[in-house]
Amino acid sequence: MNTLKIHYIKKAIKDPKNAFYVARVNIDQITGRKLFSNDAGLKHNILGNISKLKTKKTIDGKKNSNQISELEEKGYVGLGIPFKTTDIENVISKYKQMIENDDYSVVRTEYKNEVYSRMISQVYKKIPEITNLLTNEIKDMLKEHYKGSFQVHHVLAWRNYHVPPEIIEEKKLFASNWHCDGRDTSRVTLFINLSNVTEDHGPLHVQSKQRTKELIKMGYGGRHNYKLPEEVMEDPHFVVKNIGPPGTSVLCNPQLCLHRAGIPGPNKIRDIMEFRFKPSNQTLEKDWIDKIDEENIAK
Predict the structure, then answer these.
(1) Scanning 21, 82, 94, 124, which has the fewest C-beta atoms within 10 Å of its C-beta?
(2) Into which CATH architecture does domain 37-296 fall?
(3) Which residues sit opposite 117 in a β-bridge?
(4) pLDDT value of residue 55
């Protein structure tokens, strides 16, 4: 019996309730991979399909937008910079004033008293100008994708810092391993660079729905143990990175697409904002920013 198995058996003996939860989650993910060829889990795939069926269709299924066709084919689509310059600059200016200020931001990740990520708590309340980033064009894309109405489920904004290699070996501090998010698979996310992002700034990495299915069929085992060689997981023919100046954005279904965060290089940071969307039978109201339900954000 290998050392890893012995470690998990000892943990299970010490905390059987947690061991049962972990086993249930593992069964859910393994079954989800078998049936749906993604890593979101059986439960979230079923919930995603139910969400789509329950949502009232008010737009026909025709794809009028090349971008939406690409989103549905690949699971992601690059949008370039889809905002007015003044709108994105205004949001970034306010974000920069807050992200290092303890009155507005909180530590997201730390290790051995070193901070490696900070985020602005309830950014949608502190920077209400983010409503300008949900442009009419983006709203139209989302309505076309969902064939009806949608809601903003959550908005987050955070900063990642450089993590030295020796720390990375000890502990994973970001979502820097390939994974699919464990949420309702009907949801899509708009990822926005709030700083200039190059290869050295640890950009978002994404693989298509099709490549995700291929990797799972090849034996991908999960974020903690890929069970596949690094050259397969990181094959540059399939990996897309959200590189570009502030405002560069990608619309993605992170439940269906394997993705990961890069690690910023020495003295580098990456600033990110994400809007999470879900289908709805309710039309998005002008005051949507005031109706984000904190109690249901984790669901």
Answers:
(1) 21
(2) Sandwich (2.60)
(3) 109, 160
(4) 86
